[in-house]
Design a protein that fits this description.
single chain; 511 residues; alpha+beta; Nucleotidyltransferase, domain 5; OB fold (Dihydrolipoamide Acetyltransferase, E2P); 4 domains; six-stranded mixed sheet; five-stranded mixed sheet; 13 helices; 28 strands
């Protein structure tokens, strides 16, 4: 079956599904009230320097200050020399001139944070990780600007080739082309999608990125207000073309006419070859329902995932790490215990790799495989796991099984996982568990009403919900309610019932 990108757009939520061979492989969503910040560039102000952590907190205008680690700091040689000369020996502090530039960067790898930054300093940073939970955004001074085929690195002369391009001849050719095209003192990374890119396509991307960087510098120089955003990355719809629309994806389908036309213009500029593979969905049934994606999404939040053999895995996610437990369940095997355990573990490997990617689980992950006695089986399991995660675009590091049958791994985390995005702490059990968030429930109701509206001739709808959901619908989601009523031509009445579980609701189509 063909690989597809499906984009469902409404005023309150944009959902993107990457479907591979008929199976949901990745799912991303973005809500206007919960914006993503990764890739945005800000002029921020250092509010606190922490020598004990070799890090600093930077105010970039978000709700929480961002976190900047010493290895992510770039300071110009000119600026750094001036600061070191002005060190005040009496109190160990530095005196700085804020008018000095913060580009042309180079520093000793053992330079401490207090020699690089000071409180009140203005600095240009980029968001590397979105705020997650109680943590602020992870920031970096290593600015990168991605395009379709290339990633521009203005502060380095390095040329990198995606590790997923494995043909050495192609890697060599791409590196030679970039070396020929790039201006002196600039760095670029060739993305996986550029494996078959022409010289003209690479040159066009490079020219766009260089002009974009000039524009960012110009805005930065003219910006007097700090903190202030000086560059905003593409929204989730355009990023889907830039980051996921590879040669392996046959179609991209949208159900919103305005988004479809905007995406065609974007593709015409940056990837003309893709235009013929972008289409507008006009079916009677909702896009995600037609392709069976809504059913798959409903299972994403389940802790228990069954394996075909009868075994299962349990996925538990916390703020610090995630744990996956493998169990034989009802699978009893045919021959001996070791063979039963080995087959269950091997089946679990593929499912775990799939679930980590689908749920976007990042950070430290501990996997408790069923303990195996044979070293040969442990080696084969490790090899199979490394093979299973190859489709995942996130950077992954896997350690071999320990003597206790545990595997430790890390998966790069740049934003919240689906559980964090779609759920909230359970108020019934004082936060010991999680429920679907109120927003998720509201948007589920909106989709269900939109989907069924044409089947009913009634002009009034009575919606009975838990008081917390009613409160959100009548206040935060009032604008969406008005838009929905106009779209379907029906009046929506909301009734609160405190006997309802927060996830329960009833939709009655009045005569």
């Amino acid at each position: 079956m063909a690989n597809e990108i499906l984009i469902n757009t409404t005023s309150y939520e944009t959902r993107i599904a990457l479907v591979e061979n008929g199976q949901l492989a990745e799912f991303h969503l973005q809500r206007p009230t919960e914006k993503a910040f990764v890739g945005n560039i800000y002029r921020g102000r250092v509010v606190r320097v922490l020598p004990g952590m070799q890090a600093a907190f930077v105010n970039i205008g978000l709700e929480r200050t961002g976190f900047l680690y010493v290895d992510d700091v770039y300071i110009s040689n000119t600026d750094l020399d001036a600061r070191l000369l002005k060190r005040q020996e009496s109190n160990g502090k530095l005196a700085f001139s804020s008018s000095l530039p913060d580009t042309d960067i180079n520093r000793s790898p053992d330079m401490s944070i207090e020699n690089l930054l000071y409180e009140g300093q203005t600095i240009t940073v980029q968001v590397a990780k979105n705020p997650i939970g109680t943590k602020g955004a992870r920031l970096t001074c290593h600015i990168t600007l991605p395009c379709r085929n290339l990633v521009f690195m203005p502060f380095t002369e390095h040329i990198g080739i995606s590790r997923k391009i494995q043909d050495e001849d192609i890697r060599k050719t791409l590196k030679e082309r970039i070396e020929t095209l790039r201006p002196a003192g600039t760095g670029f990374i060739v993305r996986t999608v550029a494996e078959n890119a022409t010289m003209e396509e690479l040159e066009a991307d490079m020219e766009f990125l260089l002009l974009l960087w000039d524009e960012i510098l110009d805005i930065s120089n003219k910006t007097s207000t700090v903190p202030n955003m000086i560059y905003e990355d593409l929204d989730i719809t355009f990023r889907s073309v830039r980051d996921y629309f590879t040669e392996e994806v046959h179609h991209l389908i949208l159900d919103d006419r305005e988004a479809y036309e905007q995406l065609l213009k974007f593709a015409h500029t940056f990837a003309p070859k893709l235009q013929q593979r972008i289409s507008f969905y006009q079916g009677e049934s909702p896009l995600f329902v037609t392709h069976g994606v809504d059913v798959e999404i409903s299972r994403v939040l389940d802790k228990k995932v069954w394996l075909r053999s009868g075994g299962y895995i349990i996925i538990e996610t916390t703020e610090a790490l995630s744990v996956v437990d493998v169990n034989t369940g009802s699978y009893v095997g045919k021959n001996d215990l070791e063979e039963t355990i080995f087959k269950t573990n091997m089946e679990a490997v593929k499912e775990i790799a799939y679930q980590l990617r689908l749920r976007n689980i990042g950070g430290i992950i501990i996997i408790d495989f069923i303990d195996m006695g044979e070293e040969e089986h442990r080696e084969e399991l490790f090899t199979s796991f490394k093979e299973a995660v190859k489709k995942d675009k996130s950077r992954i590091n896997i350690l071999k099984l320990s003597e206790f049958g545990l595997t430790q791994m890390t998966r790069k985390r740049s934003c919240e996982n689906l559980n964090q995005m779609m759920c909230e702490p359970c108020h019934y059990c004082a936060g010991e568990g999680v429920l679907k968030s109120r927003k998720t429930i509201c948007y589920e109701i909106f989709r269900k009403i939109s989907r069924r509206a044409k089947r009913h001739n009634s002009t009034n709808i009575t919606l009975t919900v838990h008081p917390r959901i009613a409160d959100m619908l009548l206040k935060e989601e009032e604008t969406v309610i008005n838009e929905l009523e106009n779209d379907i031509g029906k009046r929506l009445s909301i009734v609160a019932n405190n006997k309802f579980h927060i996830e329960k609701y009833e939709i009655n189509w009045d005569n």
